[in-house]
Each structure stands twice: as structure tokens, then as C-alpha cells.
Amino acid sequence: MIRRAIGCAAWFGVMGVLTGQLGLAAATVPGQTVYGQACLSCHGPTLEGTQFGPPLKGDVYLSHWREKPRAALDEKIRTTMPPGKLGTVSSDDYAQIEAYLRQVNGQTATGAASGSSPAAATSANEGRSNASMMGRLQANEADPQYQARIGSRKQLLATLTPVRDEMLQRPPEGDWLSWRRGLDALGYSPLRQITRANVGQLRAAWSWTLPPSGNEITPLVHDGVMFIYSGAAIQALDAASGDLLWQYVRALPSGFAAGAASHGKSIALYADRVFAPTADGHVVALSARDGRVLWDQKVLPTMKTAFGVAPAGGLALNSAPIVVRGTVILGASLGTSYPRGCFIVGLDVLTGQERWRFHTIAQPGQPGADTWNGAPVQERYGAGVWTGASYDPDLNLVYFGIGNTYDAATLLEPRPGMKLVSSNDGLYTDSTVALRPETGALVWYFQHQNRDVWDLDWVFEQSLITLTVNGHPEKLVVTAGKTGLFDAVDAATGKYVFSSDSGVQNIVAAVDPVSGAKRINPELEPEPGKTRFMCPNSVGARNWMAAAVNPDSAMVFLPILENCADYTYAPRGAEQTAQGGLDIRFAPRLPPNHDGNFGRLSALDLHSRKVLWTHRQRVPFASSILATAGGLIFVGDVDRYFSAFDQLNGKLLWRTRLSAAPESFPVTYAVNGRQFVAVVAGSGSPMGAASRSYTPEVAASAAGVSVTAFELP
């Protein structure tokens, strides 16, 4: 169990598995419940392993641990797992997990702890706390200091202005209103008080500890109030001081670990409301002034499992919602065993009622329905949406990136009774789709990578920028997949315009200059049982950590992880294929002739389509990039550093060390004319854990999750 073998909790959400799938008795198995809550999503429901954790059963596991003393496994689990959440699993629970692993692998189960029963199930509609701070505090009303402080908090909330469509499209300079600040998904702020000249003076203004979670958090700021979510809680803070104004805490059903199940990218603001996806597959609307629940809408189907009630098939709501013309729009992701694939939904902002649903795997009657190698629709899996969208108000189009399929055999193997068909592109995987926000109708799609069987999603931010192309201004959607390869397509039609390669992949041998179709390196075509060397690994040269775009200079800044893998295609039986899951196995490898520097920042000029500068370092980067009009980019790494670089040349200008790695989305905002830069620290994301495996000297902090705001003296 190498460092990559994290027992991380629920990037996929807690997904159940019946005891019988492991060939165990139907009675309670010691450690099974605890495993489901703390380990399942990285190591799989049947301990089979995933891209973020190796198998915990069979030859791979036993060959590593068979000759080692039991104390070695005990120490490894208790000192490294779950990453960023050390101390959240009790000693008895660790013992149960170890006993469970021994029983599954047929080892002697001496010392196994007795199984513990999960907490009593709580309805998702019960036990919710959303009272404001002012309503809960008890103090001497004659105390002038108390009255002054509480009065200032009331006043701050009372002055919140409604967030309208026009404001989302053109945010006030001091606000960060949505996932990447504006609906263009650029991750860029026009604030310029903090500059190249003075950034070296940055200091911490305040810090606030958040409930445990897997991080990947984006704080939103409006009118001096920061809205932030972590785990099962949504909080409103004074953005100038960090004081808590109100909080909403959701009680999750039995079987859910609130902190573990949370890897949502953002919440959304609109009118006087805060909209948030929850770990149990709902979307809630809260009052921005006091956190009251205004509506609660179930989005994901649920199922009973050995660990409690959970979203069906491993589905999760971990994308960033966007609000357009009175509709809350967000995608569902993962669903490794959810038939018919994932989807995007549009909910009414006033009631939460579902207005429409767009299936990200082409359904019968849709364009692309015949691109699945003859597989019936109930045997098509994946196409998750696990980042956010962008929106163009002039074209009235919402743009989403779609992930890959989870079962390569569906697109590679002939169906029983029929020959392999030529149409196996697998739409709409690895595509940009443009939808009407009112109806969810598909206007156009562009598939960046057809028949992706390497888990190299093209699911990330869809940045909108106008560039001069062939002498004329053209509005483009610019996005890069896990390979670090950028595509630019026409925002109105989806027509291909150009590509630019970051230079860290060997999958795509060439790009057709007219259509944008990718020609795959023939040496990397999957062949059953044969091992191939690919770059990057399935975690990607880039992942959820978003790029930032300066619209004035047309420069794109992207964090990159230099990594490769041996991959093996291991087809399963037809019955297993029909149930979904992963059938490509990856073993991390170093890039050829590598010098040990895994973290890379890359600056791409969209005009020339060339990389202008590159900064490389030993430690991989951990956060998305924040770009500002002060000529700076801010980014964090897995060794807990949060840094500022010069946009022009990549020179390091400032850095500080946090309590944990900032595996999140940094933001900047202004209150009363004073600019702040805020970032959430917490070493809980699966990508952060995977990145640290390349630098084993870097440990994950157990400090929990916190947000820190920085300011000039």
C-alpha cells in the first residue's frame, strides 16, 4: 500500500456494495461499515482499486503485504489515512478496517475488532440547523460591546443587495460571485491594489476553521459577505474579519460521512438566495440573509446499501452550479455503475422544481445515439460532469465539459451476436456541449477526444474569450483536457478553430487542422493483457485545478503535473461489462529521463498559440490559478505553500506556508476599498493525494480545513 493507496473518503460519494459481492456471509462483517465510510471511494466497493487507490485484495495487495509484519500495515493505515482527515477515524475503527482486509484476503483474523453499528439513520429533512448567529447568541443586552458587534453583523446582512443576471454577467470589481468569478469562467479579477511591486508585503488578515471536508472549495463574496461551504455546512462570514454571520448544517442519512463525501466545487448566488448541492444528492436554496431553508429538491436517485442510503450507482453532485435566467443548472458525475450515464439538470430558482434534464450519454433519438458500438443504452456508463459551466448572454448558451466512459470494453469489444461497428466514438464523452438554459436543448457539441478509453476526461472549465482569428474578432470557447491539450472552438457554432499542446502527453499524435479530430498514437491503442506506456497517467497532466485567463493579454495560466503510467486493458466478462465499472488498470511511472520536478506552471499565449514561459518545481501544484489585473497569478502546492508569480515571466514574487495544502480555488475580493486574497487550506482531495505520491517526502497535514484571507499592511 504505497502513499497513493490512500483510504480517502468519498470523492465519488459513499457508494454501497452488497456483502455477497465479496463472497462473504450476509451477517455483519467486522470493518465493512467503516470501510464503506472511510476507504470505499478510493479503493472501490469490492476493494478492486480505482485510479486513486490500488486494490486491497488479490495478488497485487498480497504480494506487497504478505511478508511484512502486521504492525507495518497498522502503522501505514493509522499514520497516513484518510489524507487530510487524520484523527477522524477512531482506534477501534482502524482495527475493524484492518480485520476486514484480512478476512477478505483469507488471512488470519486475530485481533479483529467487533463491528460497530452506524449511527441511527437521520432523515435528510430532519436535524438541520440554520439559525443565524444573532438569534442564537445569549448575552447581556446592556453590554455595549456585545450590542455594537452584533449590530454591525445585522447591518452587514441587511445591506446585501440581490444578485441579478446583469450582475452575474458583469460582476462588481470587488465581488467574486460564481465559481470562476464571472460566467465566462476566466478565473480573473480586475482588482489591482495588490501588484507585482507590493505583493511581497502580503500578510494574513484573518483565518477561520471550517468543518471537515475533502476541500476543492471556492468561497463566494458579495457585498462584503463571504459564502462558503465545507462538509455538511454552509456558512456566511464577514469577508473583512472572518466573523461567522450564520450557518446551515445538514444532517445526512446514515452511511454518509459528511466531510468525506464533500468534493463540491462551488455554490451559487442569485437574487437573495444561496444554492448548494449536498452530499446526499439534493440541492438546497437558503436565504442569503439568515440561512433559512427556502426549498430542498432531491436530484439524484438513491438506493439502500450495506452502508446505509446513498445516491444510486455512485452518482454525486460535485460540480459547480450556475444560475442563468431563473434556472439553477448543475451536473451529476461519477455514476460508475449507474446505467444510461450522468446528466445535467435545470431547477427553478423559486421552487426547486426540475425544469429539464439533459443526458450526457446520447439517448435513443438524440444525435450520437448510434455511437456506442451497438451497446444498449442501459449498458452505457459515465460521462460525468464534475466541474462548472460557463454562459454567454449574447448567444444565450450554457457550456459544459463532459467526462469519459467508465467501461472501455463497451467501446472496444464486439457486442454479442454482432460485429464491431465503426461508430464507437461514445458521444457525448470528452465533449463540450452548448445548451439552452431555459430548456436544456442541445444546440451544438464538439467532441475533443473520441472513444476515450484512457480515463482522460475533457470535462474542465469552458473559458469564453474573444480573439482575432484570420483578421476578425471571434468569440471562442477554450478548454483543455487531462492531456494538457487546449482546443478552441467557435462559441456560436462549435466549429473547430485551433489547438495548442502543453507538451506533456504522448496519446495524441496529431490534430487535424480543419476538423480538430485527434489521431491517436498507434502504439498506445489498447490490446487485452498488453501493457502500454502513456503520458499522462489517468489522474491527468491537469485535473480539476482550473486554469485562469487574462482577457487583456490573452494569456492562459495552467498548473500541470508531470507524470506517466503503464496501463493495461483487462477486459471482464460480458456480465461484468454490463454492470459498469473500470477495466483499464494504471500503474504510475516517471516520465522518460525525468529530473524529479513534477510541478509545472505554464503560460500560453492564445494569439501565437505558443508557451511563453514555464516554471518547474519539485512539488506538484494543488490549487486552481487566480489571475488579477495587478499582473499576478496566485497558486498553491501540496507542500502547503501559497505563492504569487509574475504573469509576464513566471518569477516567484511571494509565498507563505499554510496549515495544510490549499487544494482549492483561491479568490480575490474587496471590502471598503481594501483588496483581499482568500484561499482554503485542507489536504483532502484525491488529486492532492495522488500528486503527493510522486514526492513521498511531502506529508499530508492533519490540520483540517480552514480559510485564510490575506491583505496588504
Task: Describe what is shown at a glance.
This protein has 713 residues and is α+β, with helices and mostly antiparallel strands.
- Sketch the major β-sheet: 5 strands, mixed
The oligomeric state is single chain
Class inferred from helices and paired strands:
alpha+beta
Helix percent band: 10-25%
Over all CA atoms, what is the radius of gyration?
A: 24 Å
Tell me the number of helical segments per DSSP (H or I, 4 or more residues long): 12
- What's the total count of β strands? 42
Question: Percent of residues in beta strands?
Answer: 25-35%
How many angstroms does the end-to-end distance come to?
Answer: 47 Å
Question: Which stretches are poorly predicted, pLDDT < 50 over at least 5 residues?
Answer: 1-22, 109-139
- List the strand order in the largest sheet: 1-36-37-38-39
Shape: globular
Integer average pLDDT: 86
From the structure above, extract its key features.
alpha+beta, five-stranded mixed β-sheet, 12 helices, 42 strands, four-stranded antiparallel β-sheet, about 725 residues
Give your account of this protein's structure.
- This protein is 12% helix and 31% strand.
- With 713 residues, it is an alpha+beta fold.
- The chain has a five-stranded mixed β-sheet, with no helix packed on it. A four-stranded antiparallel β-sheet has the order 2-42-41-40, with no helix packed on it. The protein has a four-stranded antiparallel β-sheet with strand order 3-4-5-6, covered by helices on one side.
- Mean pLDDT is 86; it is low at 1-22 and 109-139.
